[in-house]
Specification:
Blueprint: E1 3-8, H1 12-30, E2 38-42, H2 45-53, H3 57-73, E3 76-81, H4 90-96, E4 101-102, H5 104-114, E5 119-123, H6 126-130, H7 133-140, E6 144-146, H8 150-161, H9 171-188, E7 192-195, E8 213-215, H10 216-232
Parallel strand pairs: 1-2, 1-3, 3-4, 5-6, 5-7, 7-8
Amino acid sequence: MTKIGMIGGLGPTATLYYYKTILEDYKYAMGMPGSPEIIIYSMDNHTLQDLIKRERWSILVSWLIRGIKTLHFSGAGFAFIAGTTPHIVFDELQRISPIPLISIVEEACYNAASLNLKRVGLLGTAFTMQSSIYKNVFDKKEIEIVIPTLLEQQYIHKKMSTEIQLGVFSEEIKTRFIEIINRMKYLENIEGIVLGCTKLPAFLPHLNLDIPVINTPLVHINSIIKQYIKINNR
């Protein structure tokens, strides 16, 4: 039986969300009781943030690949990272990984393409919005990424690293997020919005929007479950 490998700990809330949702959605997909076999290797978020802050990309790759190899040696047939930020080095990880890796960014791109979107807004941490993590992948499908203004980015990042990090999503935050998305819709002609951080989907029901919302962890999880079922039903 092929097992799922998860690199977790890089956002403890996201790790819990992935584990819980994979178990729930697997039962729904199978239409019967049961759980997939999952191996979780929890890595240190402080190390991740420090390496990114110092732009030590080669060390970051070596550090993450150590975790992926641990999953492989433990019996995982494929793996994923429960977090967006580490995907800045995903291409290199995928190239040297001993097992297939499923990318949250690539799955989000496939979802946007399936909806025929050509111009989408991106919300996430300041690093995610300002980096090329999403742009490089979405460019391949000729989908343009639009990011908020600098002041909006600062607001989003501050709230995500404070209240939202602690599970608080006040009316003030809800209103401001909707204002930012609507401004991007009407002034920058976005056709959909990408929730490019694993913290955001927990608050998805609170945002009443009339454009498609790409819940990146959820589309990631859907692909992980499909891969698990496919491999184990051969």
